[in-house]
Amino acid sequence: MSEYLIINILIIIVPLSLSFEKNLKFYKKVKSVLKSILIVSSAFIIWDVIATERGDWAFNPDYLIGVKFFGLPIEEILFFITVPYACIFIFETVKFYIEDKTLNVNENILLFISFIIVFISVLNYERDYTFTVSLFTAASILLLKFLGKDLFVSKNFWLTLIISYIPFLIVNYFLTSIPIVTYNSLSFSDVRFITIPVEDFFYSFSMISMWILFYNLFETKNG
Asked: Rounded CA gap, 125 and 123, in Å?
């Protein structure tokens, strides 16, 4: 069994085992979870395929099974299933056990932040990872503003992001320190937190926020 596959198993084992907990009953929401994964993860997998082909990052074969789809290791594709399942589980757990609170968020500030991030992407046009992740992050903020206003002013949404960054740091540390994933220094700023590229923090924000956004949209429609 590959190290990357073990990481995937560790990511999902607790959320999956607690999905049938009698109070939370997360299993009843799995349809919305799968729809969100299908939409959001598909977009990121397409990016992943392109980025891998152009050499933004690569995967160390010593820590993989060796099975690939569209040029990506099967473990990488599983990552886009196990991680969103775990993050949405955290979101629902936070909602169930913690009373939400509406935050005072100025919408003009959101637009300004998006503009700044787009400007950063332009400045880093030759750094493929930095450029792309900046655009994805700006797009995520705008989608949250226009499609998920209730989320952006939700204390529990931001609390979920903070909690999700704890396993993110642990998982990304192992992925980048072993290393299972290696990065082309010409494709990003080469600024790291320990062994984690700083761009990964924006990458994770855009993914987690979009998984939760589309999940919330489907759950609201079902409700």
From this structure: 6
The DSSP 8-state label assigned to residue 38 in this structure reads I
User: Residues 30-36: contacts with CB within 8 Å, 24+ apart?
Assistant: 31/218, 31/222, 32/215, 32/218, 32/219, 32/222, 33/84, 33/85, 33/88, 33/215, 35/214, 35/215, 35/218, 36/84, 36/88, 36/211, 36/212, 36/214, 36/215, 36/218
pLDDT digits (tens, 9 = 90+) for 58-78: 999 999 999 999 999 999 999
What one-character DSSP code corresponds to residue 29? G
Per-residue model confidence as pLDDT tens digits over 172-186: 999 999 999 999 999
- Token pair listed for 95: 């909602």
Rounded to the nearest 5 percent, the helix, strand and coil shares of the chain are 70, 5, 20
Kind plus residue range of the DSSP H or E element containing 72: strand 72-73
Q: Reduced to 3 states, what is the DSSP secondary structure of residue 73?
A: strand
SS3 103: coil
Contact of 145 with 152, CB cutoff 8 Å = yes
* Rg of the chain (C-alpha set): 17
- CB contact set of 54 (below 8 Å; sequence gap of 6+): 128
Q: Around Cβ 186, how many Cβ atoms within 10 Å?
A: 12
Convert 152-216 into a string of H (helix), E (strand) and C (coil): HCEHHHHHHHHHHHHHHHHHHHHHHHCCCEEECCCCCCCCEECCEECHHHHHHHHHHHHHHHHHH
Is the whole model's pTM more than 0.90, yes or no? Answer: yes
